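Q: A reviewer asked whether we had any structural model of the full assembly, not just the individual parts. We don't, so I'm hoping you can provide one. Inputs are below.
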Amino acid sequence: MRLTVLQPQHRTPEPGPEAREKCGVFGVWGEPHPARTTYFGLFALQHRGQESAGIATTNGEALERHADMGLVSTVFSPETLSRLDAHAHSRPGPTTRPGGAIGPNRDSTTGASLRTNAQPLMGYFKGGHVAIAHNGNIINAAALRRRLEDDGHAFATTSDTEVVLQLLAANAQSSLFSPTDALAAALRELKGAFSLVFLFRDRIEAARDPWGWRPLVIGRTSDGHPVVASETVALSVIGAEFVREVQPGEIVTLSDNGIESRRFADADIPHAHCVFEHVYFASPASTVFGQSVQMIRERLGERLAAEAPAKADLVMAMPDSGRSAATGFAMASGLPYREGIIPNRYVGRTFIKPTNEERITAVRLKLNVISEVVKDQRVVVVDDSIVRGTTTRIKMDQLRDAGAREIHLRISSPPIRHPCFFGVDFPEPSQLVANGRALDDIRRLLGVDSLHYLSLEGLLEVCGSPSVPAGHYCTACYNGVYPIEIPAGLAKDMMGCC
Amino acid sequence: MRLTVLQPQHRTPEPGPEAREKCGVFGVWGEPHPARTTYFGLFALQHRGQESAGIATTNGEALERHADMGLVSTVFSPETLSRLDAHAHSRPGPTTRPGGAIGPNRDSTTGASLRTNAQPLMGYFKGGHVAIAHNGNIINAAALRRRLEDDGHAFATTSDTEVVLQLLAANAQSSLFSPTDALAAALRELKGAFSLVFLFRDRIEAARDPWGWRPLVIGRTSDGHPVVASETVALSVIGAEFVREVQPGEIVTLSDNGIESRRFADADIPHAHCVFEHVYFASPASTVFGQSVQMIRERLGERLAAEAPAKADLVMAMPDSGRSAATGFAMASGLPYREGIIPNRYVGRTFIKPTNEERITAVRLKLNVISEVVKDQRVVVVDDSIVRGTTTRIKMDQLRDAGAREIHLRISSPPIRHPCFFGVDFPEPSQLVANGRALDDIRRLLGVDSLHYLSLEGLLEVCGSPSVPAGHYCTACYNGVYPIEIPAGLAKDMMGCC
Amino acid sequence: MRLTVLQPQHRTPEPGPEAREKCGVFGVWGEPHPARTTYFGLFALQHRGQESAGIATTNGEALERHADMGLVSTVFSPETLSRLDAHAHSRPGPTTRPGGAIGPNRDSTTGASLRTNAQPLMGYFKGGHVAIAHNGNIINAAALRRRLEDDGHAFATTSDTEVVLQLLAANAQSSLFSPTDALAAALRELKGAFSLVFLFRDRIEAARDPWGWRPLVIGRTSDGHPVVASETVALSVIGAEFVREVQPGEIVTLSDNGIESRRFADADIPHAHCVFEHVYFASPASTVFGQSVQMIRERLGERLAAEAPAKADLVMAMPDSGRSAATGFAMASGLPYREGIIPNRYVGRTFIKPTNEERITAVRLKLNVISEVVKDQRVVVVDDSIVRGTTTRIKMDQLRDAGAREIHLRISSPPIRHPCFFGVDFPEPSQLVANGRALDDIRRLLGVDSLHYLSLEGLLEVCGSPSVPAGHYCTACYNGVYPIEIPAGLAKDMMGCC
Amino acid sequence: MRLTVLQPQHRTPEPGPEAREKCGVFGVWGEPHPARTTYFGLFALQHRGQESAGIATTNGEALERHADMGLVSTVFSPETLSRLDAHAHSRPGPTTRPGGAIGPNRDSTTGASLRTNAQPLMGYFKGGHVAIAHNGNIINAAALRRRLEDDGHAFATTSDTEVVLQLLAANAQSSLFSPTDALAAALRELKGAFSLVFLFRDRIEAARDPWGWRPLVIGRTSDGHPVVASETVALSVIGAEFVREVQPGEIVTLSDNGIESRRFADADIPHAHCVFEHVYFASPASTVFGQSVQMIRERLGERLAAEAPAKADLVMAMPDSGRSAATGFAMASGLPYREGIIPNRYVGRTFIKPTNEERITAVRLKLNVISEVVKDQRVVVVDDSIVRGTTTRIKMDQLRDAGAREIHLRISSPPIRHPCFFGVDFPEPSQLVANGRALDDIRRLLGVDSLHYLSLEGLLEVCGSPSVPAGHYCTACYNGVYPIEIPAGLAKDMMGCC
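A: Here is a predicted structure for the entire assembly that you could use as a starting point for your response.
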């Protein structure tokens, strides 16, 4: 899979990868520079969301936030981070310890509402000031929102996250609940995928949906301060050690008391981890659902070589995401691995919209084929997945133009044919190249000599483990089997989610 | 009164005038270019708020908004206005008529929350999408907010206006109320000064508090489209005719049905129009509370000449706000009117903070004394009011340095000695030059040969009229008599208002 | 005269006043904060140029500069000024004294070359690093440029000022000249209006053309540091005392040695001071060509009342530039002075281009007529000059619509009928309302009951003095008599000047 | 070699790679969208300069330019490109053909002079309007500049390129030369490395220094329009075919007449192509000095495996620049190639300066080690070169921490020990890790089990070819043998070059 270059508008954030994760989240409590540390954590999670970023800190009484559109590197200045850290240190009373910080990266809806929807979402309710960072997609958000409006609530934004906020506030009203219990009560009403991080005045609360769709892990800095993050790569970068995953259905509290835990949902709900995290989304440098992503991808390539070998002279990757599987394929097949397509590192997320004549130029700009490598060769090209197939088709033509004798395309995951309602932003099914097409039709369309996808069985055998057996993965985008019921008409409401 | 030049920070919006109005509001329905027309209306009302501006339009189903920090001239581009107007024209169904637009200018709180608090405030509730523009100060906002939080509401901002939104939503929940009645019910809970303009999907609703503190007028464009504005000058600028004031306690609806009216409060609540609108705030080009502001100010100068004549060679003004009264004083006294102080037109709201040594430089920069006019002369200097007196003192020194033989300072309103809770943002009472000082002490402090303020009786006689008798004005800042009870501890809560 | 509101483009700097001065210049040597002091000086001279501003400082070896498009208030931050001042203090060797600073405000050409043409112009030549600020118009610049190009010089910009730089460099090559003499030699080649300020590594040199078209004065701060400025108002603002004018044909050196003088041109060249500085350009707070501008303008109004009295009820001004003459007219005629037109202070230099239908809206926005003042009255309206007449015509209509019974328009200077080649940027002659029209035609076109301009004799009698007799003024824009010969085809070349 | 993360200042452009090329240049004549095509060409050459970019077009009479600091993607908007292209199409006379465009990417000096030094440099001289884009370093620039100043020339900037401009102008003065000959005469005075592209009103002239240090090639679009570019990758991206290299000492003219050629220097000057272009600088997708860069790098890895084999379990690369050689090493050694270090794609050129404690965090952020790949393994790590060694050292420690059993570091080029005066911006010699250190000292400092650099002989054998024999390369950075004499004290003057 690779970046799309054909942009609908100048300097709007690019849709970027053809499939998009919703968010990455990070939080740390009591660390000397919580905002600065969160900045590094968000940097490590940048692949989970590139459109906006934000950080909030608490001083034990009130929260302060900075958030804006853009990459982490452009949203924050040293002055901003210092201001946020100074706020965390201004705790009243005898304590000399700073408060905490949380922050998300996001890929979000576009247009006029952008600034209003900036995250972390801030709110005020009976329990005080709160900030919320959210990774996932709540499939009953529209229904909850209608119920809350009927109950007299007004919303400032169109985001799912504000539904969480108003639910929290509504549950906090009753004298039966402490604000803490109110959180569990609110979470019990949510259906779908969510890894949520809340910054309250005196603590961070991190919760993961009962199905465990998205990853969420806790760690500890070298000085013992608790950390929460979407992926372990954020722990590695700040030099924190991995403690454990937040369990599906669990709330973990990070505070001056260290790490505490409680459950908001039964433990016997069947897990449904997103297998696409292993295939494409998560950083290869992370351990997700208990396993190294890089190792998984290499092994997917090895398995692919076993399932669909090719008589060829060399193995090459569609960079950058296909490289891990390609090296695995090369090792298993004994063929040499070579770099036959070179990506332009400067084609980022802002790019002038090419005219029709310029489309091929744009693809050539992003990915340069090295004729000397492929000329007269039988090449195996490995990619992790195909979504629309547009770029793949152009690139296969260019390989052919460069003199490749045979092209054997190998994909290290099954064909994507169904929508995701749990946080992956695929295009409409009609735009998926595998939707309604038999394998040979796809092959002809892409113009290659042979095409093979990894089987679902192969994928699950590689991803499964004693602690996370194959049956604990959600594979709905491949086989259309959704772990929970999808409300009718959801697709339409999905636009404003997250 | 005049601009303060001594700024606490570079390029923060200047506090500007020593006393500040909270907002100006404007709305128009069904006009061919509602956003563009609102842009001109807000330009005409810029004196009522210089820190931020915003416009929202409706297409009958949803609202679109653009708002930002800055003057109207910098917040809006032609593209933005065209986009907002195009939205108003995208009404579904058979109608070819556009929807409406509203917008405020505001002077608001500073800091991190600025963008979040941008106005018009947008919200979603049972009655649909709504935008709210607010001029005034609601004195029971904190109490209402606490009650709503106890009832399970969460707030996204710290602004009073969101209290109005959540009240509206809360009242809309009950099946007893239509959304329309919900508005009246919500307004009945508010205490204080407010001129509110709501943009709903299918109409504008404009409401004025039962005491009538702030002005609010309705007009009609040359094509018959209904308009609402804080002041008549906005009607004049767009070529609309003045229809009438919105009555205290009245809600006026502007829609495809033209102008409709209903009341949300009893008509017998005693009126309390802000007399400071006549003295300083309102545009001299407006008719406020039934009278021309420019004529009132000239007559205040004439009355001042009668109450406190001076043996002098010439009359001059503290520009620009003292000029109308000064010409009135000159006419009544028979002395020649001359321009002895010239303002620098380029000293705007952003200005580098002067060091202590530069303060006098900064005052000299804003207001240049013309030595040739004042040298060896006995001069009458007329100003509309004195707040802190800092600039006045420096300026009187400079007049003396320039050779003025005698300085007779005349102020066309009484001394300000009490805080305002109804939308005027005076500094703390301890900073008011007249607070706790007898007239002669003030005179000595300012270094003038004679000093006279207009009497409260004189002020009210000039401002009173058959339709708005003297007793219908609020004069609390002069005599401390507040028309309604002020909640204890209000001053502290006032910071986040509007 | 007043601001034009009808703009050709959004957010390009407005042409601003209908006639534009080219630049204001300022310099100070050895003062503790030379850049900061220059900032205040430029602020005081902002009326002489609103499109760009810049400041350069020297540390005795190299120069540093900051310049950008925009008003002084937006171009400079405290950090920038501190950096420039720190540079001035980093002089090597035993001295503890800082170097100096110079800076211009400018109204310049637009478009792609803007940044390149930013001033002060910086250059490197045999004499070292130099910065140049220029007010005026050099009429033989094109010829000099062609000669220099033929001699093998390349130019980086299209500005006249670079012609001065290359002339200086070319004269510095010969061993016959010291760099100092090279300056005098270069200046002797220039024809036209120029007040030039050079910052060399170790001194400021200020020069004024032999005809004395534009003002240029020297002063001394309260600590004795030498200052040079276009107008005395810049001296007043920083608390410096006026020493004397730079004489026509003189070079004044400001350095560690104080103020030194030499001549580069004969003293017997007839002077040609621009009378329009008195009429419109200079600040009323300045003393120009030996006389107070404010007093001159009042006396022009008095003289106008004598030349062209009117039977009327009141006198009012076209604000703001007509106000001084209007008060003079009122004093001389015995009629009351009143404010009948109120300017909107927020209509600045950036303004969305009005559509045709909005033109009248735009004029109404800039200048509000007060109906209550003019209704049923016979009014005298005084303005300082008329250029195109467009705004005047619309405004006279609005006075009539507001109920004025009779309108007597009085202009305190003669009709402008000829182009200026010496630094005033009038529109093309065909656009001047007085060009080719008899007085009564103009009167009918403007729609007034009577119209009178001040006679040229009257103007010169008021402006003349023992030290600057009437014959020492340039009045070419009124009578077409040019003090020096104008090269054929100059108008075409004028676009890129300054 | 890899990116440096330790930045001296927030948001100044990063020095980026530890060694920096000066510029990339591109030009095209007569093509329908010359600016847009140049935009794509510059995008393909972005690796040659990341600090600023600019494009100029000609309409046959005058030139227009847009240039700014930043990457190509941020400097140009569609509007800017359309404006530049429209200018090229506005040629007077009967022709309907557009003019041409040129543009550079640059890495340049920082600070106040940035904007002034923006490229392409624009100038006016006897031959008309000209724009110049420059890749290289002229070692006698300071001497030429002093001579020109002595001759009476003034300079607007400190850049070498303006020396070229003034030389051109000086040579154009004499009637002995046509402007064309003036160019050859000017170029004959230059010593050092330069690939220069000039845009004149009616043509592009492209010249390459007599030694051929930097690459410069010509091509032809599919419609036959002539193109010039630093590297062939820019031709590929726009779909143009490669015609040939510009010869050392040759001037190639691109105009309505197609491609014409003349020489400005003798053909027998010994060539000195920069071998570091093959090792690191040039795009792997380019053919440079007659050979595919990617193939050269693979073969350097193969040769390295032959010269310095290692008993190990796997081969991995320092990404991204070491990857080509690493795959070659793997192929030659029969060891599996795996990805053991994953770069963070979002760590760009703007990055908050890490504190001392954060340095290791910053390196971890840029390059993530995959423990599961390296644990208990004997790993060969291949990189293309080492400059300072700072990042390498930290990264080797992290490999060790991740459990690598043995680390065998292999570098596919010899140790860098001498400064470059021909366009590569290495740090000072004292900062080079190989300077004054024996191989084993470097090994110990980097903390690896074995370390080998490719021999110079090996490098030259791989890079040599029948058409470009080994002796035609400059290898001064490795062995200190400079092809031409270096002026004393050059290093000091080098700062402002290019």
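A: Points you may want to mention in the reply: Chain B is about 30% helix and 25% strand. The longest helix of chain B spans residues 293-307.
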